[in-house]
Protein: Glutaredoxin domain-containing protein
Organism: Eleusine coracana subsp. coracana
Amino acid sequence: MYQAIPYSASRAWSPRTHQPAPPPTMESAALVVEAAADEEEKRRRQQQQQGGGAGEEVRRAVAECPVLVVGRRGCCLSHVVKRLLQGLGVNPAVHEVAGGEADLAGLVDGRDVVPALPAVFVGGRLLGGLDRLMAVHISGDLVPILKDAGALWL
């Protein structure tokens, strides 16, 4: 049978010496927001100094890879796109964007159009998102497009 752990009532609890923090004021909240904005600005400047940031990295990947999937980390639609392409025998390169789509501006024929994520680039050109990829696949045109881009050898 289980034995109970004896309780010692003779030991007193130590009082709390820690005092709660005062509630935040509007001034302290404004300082926190200002500090966050300063950190974001520093990060942007560092990315520009390091060669253009994530947008330049995506442009280089679009030019080099026959098939590139650009999507958000953990996005279920990006996962479906990757699985569809892998099911056809294509191993797409994947670029995960942290959150903003602003880095993708200018990838569509040099225009300032921002593609919706996930975006599929085949042969250096934007094919579209999941809906467009599925439509091209169902119509039977996806395999010839992939062959022309050099992503399939069948």
The beta strands are 67-72, 93-97, 119-122, 125-128.
